[in-house]
Automatic annotation (TrEMBL):
One GO CC term on file: mitochondrion
Key words, A-Z: Protein biosynthesis, Signal
Top-level taxonomic group: Eukaryota
Ribosome recycling factor domain: residues covered: 115-278
InterPro entries: Ribosome_recyc_fac, Ribosome_recyc_fac_dom, RRF_sf
Protein name, UniProt field: Bifunctional RRF superfamily/Ribosome recycling factor domain/Ribosome recycling factor
Length: 283
């Protein structure tokens, strides 16, 4: 619907553009008519601007109101300004800190389980003929026989086996088969016999300590990552909220202590697992 003001401007425009020049044309010459037309055209432009401002003046108010409504949408309009600021500038929640600590603990537990699995792979086997006696030796594409039927196996010391074929032509197939079957051992081809070297207990202990060292290094990296995540959370707080977080509530300080306690507890469990493995390797 067009209001009274808009209707008045419309009538004035029609009068200025059409009726006034026609009325004056009866009394004025052509030059005067041109001059009158220019004057009325300028006056018409002024009226157009005034009409545009009148019609458009309401629109910014509506847009501002909508913008204000968009800002307050989903918020409690009855809340005070202090409550609004409190909602934006929040502290680190207890839930987020608990999740961070739980993730760190799970990562350390996974590292501990991997260490235990790796330690299980370190064999406590000693050099005895029974290690190789039952290995099937492929003599040709159709014939296989157990090693004890093809060679004499004796123990030279705690870590070395000597395999001497009964027939010299079986030396090469026996060596090839033992090399593939005993991938974790050192198999040497000598003049007319084969030596199988089993890692010593000292070497196995060093292997266990090396595995422990790698696991501890990974755990330290996990601890550093947890600390970095905590610092990142603190970086999003204002100075006032950071003061309340550290001094008044002490939540992040408590989490740092929890991270250190979890790390120390898991590190002690890792040391205990490695020590137990080394004891099991002792003769």
């Amino acid at each position: 619907m067009i209001g009274k003001v808009e209707a008045g401007f419309a009538m004035r425009l029609i009068f200025n553009l059409l009726l006034v020049p026609l009325l004056e044309h009866k009394f004025l010459n052509s030059n005067a008519l041109v001059h009158s037309f220019h004057v009325h055209t300028a006056w018409t432009l002024v009226n157009l601007r005034a009409w545009n401002n009148t019609l458009g003046g309401v629109l910014p108010l509506g847009a501002s109101k909508n913008k204000k409504n968009r800002k307050t949408y989903g918020r409690n309009t009855n809340a005070s300004d202090e409550e609004d600021v409190e909602e934006v500038d929040t502290a680190i929640s207890e839930e987020s800190l608990d999740i961070l600590a739980l993730d760190f603990k799970k990562s350390l537990e996974a590292a501990k389980e991997k260490l235990e699995a790796d330690l299980m792979k370190i064999s406590a086997t000693r050099a005895t003929p029974g290690l190789v006696d039952t290995i099937e030796i492929e003599l040709d594409s159709k014939t296989t026989r157990q090693l004890r039927h093809l060679a004499h196996v004796v123990t030279l010391d705690n870590n070395v086996l000597k395999v001497e074929p009964i027939q010299k032509e079986h030396l090469t197939p026996i060596f090839c088969t033992l090399t593939m079957e005993l991938a974790n051992y050192k198999v040497q081809l000598e003049n007319g016999f084969i030596l199988v070297n089993i890692p010593s207990q000292g070497a196995k202990a060093r292997q266990a300590f090396g595995t422990l060292g790698l696991c501890k290094k990974k755990c330290r990296v996990l601890r550093q990552d947890a600390m970095n995540k905590l610092r990142k959370k603190k970086g999003g707080l204002s100075e006032d909220m950071l003061f309340r977080q550290e001094v008044c509530k002490g939540r992040d300080v408590e989490l740092q202590k929890r991270i250190e306690e979890i790390f120390k507890r898991v590190a002690a469990a890792l040391d205990a697992a490695c020590t137990a493995k080394i004891k099991s390797l002792a003769p």
